[in-house]
Fold this protein.
Amino acid sequence: MTVSSMGQPLLDVRDLKVHFPITSGLFRKVVGAVRAVDGVSFALEPGKTFGLAGESGCGKTTLARAILRLEEPTDGKVFFDGAEITSMSDAQLTAVRTGMQMVFQDPYSSLNPRLNVERIVSEPLRVHRVGTERERHERVAELLTTVGLPPDAAARHPHEFSGGQRQRIGIARALALRPKLIVADEPVSSLDVSIRAQILNLMRNLQDELGIAYVFIAHDLALVRNMSHKVGIMYLGHIVETASSDELFLHPAHPYTLALLAAVPGAETGGRARERARRFAPLEGDVPSPACPPSGCPFHPRCARATEECREAGVFPPRHELAPGHLVWCHHPLETE
Amino acid sequence: MNVLKRMWRLPRGRIGICITVAVVLVAVFAPLLAPYNPYDIDQRDARRMRPGRGHWLGTDAFGNDILSKLIYGARVSLIVGLCTGLAVTVVGTFMGILAGYTGGWVDTVIMRACDVIFVVPGLPLMILLANYLGTKFYMIIVIFTVLGWAGMARMIRSQVLSVRSRDFVAASRSIGASKWHIMAEHILVSVSPLMIVNGVLNAAGVMVAEAGLSFLGFGDPTAISWGKMLFEAQSGHALLFGAWWWVVPPGLAIFVTVFGFMMAGYALEEVLNPHIPRRQAFSAMRRQMRKFAAGRGTCATAAVAGGAAAGTGGSRQGGVTRG
């Protein structure tokens, strides 16, 4: 898998920032901001998968929601299919939304328990007034078959299904408008391990058949590696390292990436990287609060390699391109031998 | 219907359904059931007759048959209760959803309007409005709705606030659904159990309030209602003459009907909201009862007055007169 691409990326995120203001007092004075996403850039080609990994609270979900403009970005731009969607009006956005859909983490709260599956899956079709009543009915049956559910599931309600089946319903809903991009926010982390593989295989088959691109978010590195063509490691609102999947896992360069790999029991990180990861001290402490991020490199308080340079206020670590497409933001990246 | 069947399985639901259906039937078939014309005042010779053969529940000071009045009285109680319950539900739900989902200045305006309605003393305002707008029963419905929607709107709003942050709303937004679509498709169905249950309980409360208003002499003077029967008994010094049969039936009728509605309401709540364990449902019921007893603004003060008059004899409050 190569990172370099021909032509235009399907999704191009440029320096995206989402800050939530912290207000205080009677007049809601803004006293600070939670920098949930603080300058993220990446690009995704059609039909490929970009994996996002990182600890809880590093801004993965906010990033996902900001890409779909479920959260309003504070700054930065998102281009989808060549069009800049960050400055679009709601009306313009409605048209674009047919091309990008989301699959949620929690298959319990993402399906309205009071609607039957037919209504849930047909909602995108109804919102965009696609087809007649009968055509929609047929499309729902077709979608349910696609995701591996019996067509008679349409008449039932979400509570009659297991977690994995519910996630299939959520995927069917996301597929209804034949999107080019699906943002999947930890689609399997609330499922049993035995069910996960089924859902992941389903997603991969859909990609092969329908050419859908995914932004795949997970905190399980093995999953991300398995699913993604390209991977970004997030820490405290920043992508600290990005590379093609194999490159990243075989030659991790950021201390944080290495620490994450070291924390995965039996991760398929490949010989040498694995060895180095073992020697590496495991991470201690928690992710600092994004309301008052550390000065300089956000990772320095937990980094064994941190020096005075890393702590210097206001200086974000420089970008190194270690290999084509392999970018790392670190003062002291590990050498890729 | 499935809901009714499941309600029937609960003792409370059965009681509620039986009473409600019985009262509705009595109201609908009043002309067939009533042995006399309740408006007939020709029987001057038969005043304050004890219950007996000719008049099963006796007669009042005007010589009217009390059973017939009681049967016709069900009509006003039901019409006022059901219409107001419906109107309050529709207006309150709409406002609550709009305020809760839209947020911002819309929310602020609607909630401040609710606050104003909450701090206005209900009973004096009702009396004032009844005098000003007239006491036709549809005017009473309007008055009760104006005063009643705020409580419903608040309750619905708080539920909407918890529903709007759920993922299925985000999913709907990511699809590109409009605010109105989301409110109609997702928010409304999510609050509908709360809406229905409170609509029914509201109807019960309004029936009590209507009786209270009529008891104070501000009801529709041309219609026969249970509250007005109590008013007449009160002003006709029923208890002074020992005419208990003039006082007890309308009081009991109000009590039984409201009780039936509330039972139906709680059974409905349990059926529509199966997550509420029984004990919790009961404590909710107790809370509601306490609220009624404590004189929740508009309805209850009048109701308690009415109830007291019916139960223990109204002679102590003999000072209440018209105007």
Q: What stands out?
A: Residues 11-329 of chain A form a domain with the Rossmann fold fold (CATH 3.40.50.300). Chain A touches chain B through 28 residues (CB under 8 Å).
